[in-house]
Amino acid sequence: MTKKQPVTLLPYHKTTYRYQKLKICNHCRQYTLIADEPCPHCGRDQLISIEKKAEQLAQRSTAIHVLLMIAAALLGILFGETFLQMGLAAAVGAAAVAVYVIIRERTKSFFAMKELGQLIERDEAKMIEGLFRNWEDAIELWKTEPVNTYERLREISTLQRSEMIRIQQIALLNTFILRKDMEIDLEPIMLRHFEPMLAELIGEVAKVKRDAIKEHAIKYMVNYEIEVLELNQGDQLLAQVVGAAVRMRTYVEAYPNFIARYARYLPKERFLRLYNMLSRSASSSLGHLTDEVYRIYKERYQWDADFQSGSKGL
């Protein structure tokens, strides 16, 4: 059994769009997802965001067009036969440049987004190559710097949503001592198949940070309940998830039979929460759960003062 180690994880910076995680090197034009480090390809400290690169390309496009307009005006002046024609060429050229610059300045966000779209389409192969390079670097650090590896994989999974990378993150998280103050989000690492490590991780998270257990985690444990029960202390893993689920009535109403099967494993304070929830608002759809909770109450807690204060009974 791998000994778990205490760790400190950096907060995960979320972005509005996934592509905003990408950085590009202004020197070698290679891509990476690992910020605040030199370019992993050339070693230069010239990484900028892909959005900043698109802005630069839009500005360069504007500058080229302005130069072409100035050149056209100069040709008009050069080939003007009279001072009037030369003056008109200069005036028209200056006016055209001024109008063009004003229009581009007011619509610069549009042209930046246009350049961004073209950049992503043009450099797709380079981006994939950069992600693969990031993944190789992360795996090399696994034994010596597992936290660094996990944080890198977490960034990579923003764009590369593969089952393998998710499993690697799960394996690493299972070697860490999890704490309530940690930023833990299970949704990005949920799998489409049963994986014992994920079931164990969900159970551990349910024990230390109940509010991190949401619909996707509960549904996963419900779907693979039989497989979880075959694990060592599988019933306790399921009970931990039920203990986290009873914090919200929405989950209780969505999975009443699942909760009923493991209600007897709940510690007193979690069972009391469930008991009070059902006491305050009975529902015919929760009939079996209500009956099971009442049975456990009569068997263990009917003389417990905590169950009498403020409770109307079931």
Topology, element by element:
Blueprint: E1 5-6, E2 23-25, E3 31-32, E4 47-49, H1 50-78, H2 83-106, H3 108-122, H4 124-140, H5 146-156, H6 163-173, E5 176-177, H7 196-208, H8 215-223, H9 225-229, H10 234-245, H11 249-254, H12 256-262, H13 268-280, H14 287-301
Parallel strand pairs: 1-5
Antiparallel strand pairs: 2-3, 2-4
Helix pairs in contact: 1-2, 1-3, 4-5, 5-6, 7-10, 12-14, 13-14
Strand content: under 5%
- Structural class, judged by helices and strands? mainly alpha
Specify the number of helices.
14
| Average pLDDT figure | 90
Q: What characterizes the major β-sheet?
A: 3 strands, antiparallel
The percent of residues in helical segments reads 55-70%
Order of helices and strands: EEEEHHHHHHEHHHHHHHH
**How many β-strands, per DSSP?**
5
Low-confidence stretches: none
Main sheet: strand order: 3-2-4
Taking all Cα atoms into account, the compactness measure Rg is 30 Å
Keywords: Membrane, Transmembrane, Transmembrane helix
Transmembrane segments: 62-80, 86-103
